[in-house]
Amino acid sequence: MAKEKTIRVKVNGAERRATVEVRRNLADFLREDLELTGTHLGCEHGVCGACTVLVDGEAVRSCLMLAVQAEGHEITTVEGLTTPDGDPGPLQQAFWDNHGMQCGFCTPGMICAAAALLRENPHPTAAEVRERLSGNLCRCTGYQDIVASVLAAAEGK
Amino acid sequence: MKAAAFDYEAPASLEEALALLQARSDDAKILAGGQSLMPMLNMRLARPALIVDINRLPGLDYIRVADGQLRIGALARHTAVAKHPEVVRGWPVLAEAAAQIGHDAIRNRGTVAGSLAHSDPTAEHPAVLAALDGEVVARSAKGERTLKADELFLGYLTTALRADELLTEVRLPVLPPHTGSTFVEFAPRVGDFAVVGIAAAVTLGGDGAWQDVRLALTGVGGTPFRARQAESALKGTRPKAADIAAAAAQVAEAIEPDSDIKASARYRRQLARTLTERALTTAAERAAGQGGR
Hints:
The complex is a heterodimer. By secondary structure, chain A is α+β, with helices and mostly antiparallel strands. Chain A has five helices and five strands, in the order ββαβββαααα. Helix content of chain A is 31%, strand content 17%. In chain A, a hairpin with a 2-residue loop joins strand 1 (4-11) and strand 2. By secondary structure, chain B is α+β, with helices and mostly antiparallel strands. Chain B has helices spanning 14-23, 37-42, 78-83, 85-90, 92-99, 104-107, 112-118, 125-131, 149-152, 228-234, 241-254, 265-288, and strands at residues 7-9, 28-31, 50-53, 63-66, 69-73, 135-140, 143-148, 153-155, 158-159, 166-173, 179-186, 196-204, 210-218, 225-226. Chain B has a five-stranded antiparallel beta sheet with strand order 4-5-10-6-7. Chain B has a four-stranded antiparallel beta sheet with strand order 11-12-13-14, sandwiched between helices. In chain B, helix 10 (228-234) runs antiparallel to helix 11 and helix 11 (241-254) packs antiparallel against helix 12 (265-288). The radius of gyration of chain B is 19 Å and the shape is globular. The model of chain B has no long low-confidence stretch (mean pLDDT 96). At the A-B interface, strand 4, helix 3 and helix 4 of A face strand 1, helix 2, strand 3 and helix 6 of B.
């Protein structure tokens, strides 16, 4: 029973192969092994939501999943939510335009959680946005501009 | 905040998983959704030598109705249960309980079976299992047994499941016609652990009187509290606001909650009373309208 395992994972559209310690969580795998440091780690026990990524299109806390569990799945991080040219995607642009961030630590998790919401419900109400982002903590903004950013992205502004 | 080292196996068949659990029953932990186990590993509150990841087991994510029961496989996630059309139609209490667990990202991974096996005293599903007189199937290499809620839940984070057993299926009975059910809880913010919650299912007879009443609370002790005295006090009479209020007061009297960092015992009693009243009112309205459920 090895303490290491080689895994194949599709991350932001590209096949990645790596040998990881089996105890490595998905967040550390993304940050340390793949150098995708857009995914942030706050509490590391599933409370703050900063590490939220998309697994097969669904929002998941990457600190609460092992890297080896991602084998065969598709991961999308905040880096994968840009336009094909690498410019900010609609949600990212909306956060920029609406001042949806201050320090930016929670932003990748917010954007991934919001992306999952908009996929399922392209025109949410402000209350629905608040409910869906309730698992993502922000210590700066008071959330007003984050909610405004998600609503603006939904309206295509 | 990183897990201690462990061995890891992701068996591809149930037999393989059960054999591993039998061989390593002294130091193995089962990983399903991981929404309770992973934080415990990260904080090193749990340091198992072996993680048996059951997520690669085929065909265990089912939600189906068979032989008069709703059957939920070990890998059915809260999101799938909350949105399943048959669950929404036939077991609103379960759909509503699943929808109130944590946040979207938690519900996408966490499982009903895992929640029952973990037995958190403020978890939603244990109260649903207790209220509906459901049962769980525990499989081991030696065989299979079923356990009812009062056999399964022994206390705070403690169940009767043996270390070599895997909780493979959750079974809830089909609710009779003219049954209304609901799950109501209070948490300070959306997605927080509930302070108190209640699962309610009531059946009205042809005369409009309470024929069956089932109430189970979470967050008022180490295991779900089945409010049998209040249930029987209502039976046989027609739903009246004054009787519902009296039953709610009785529930608040009967429970023996503790005070902790989240709430005082007195506050928990008040919540139990208010939530019981709301749950009974909603369940009775649903039972009376559209043939119930």
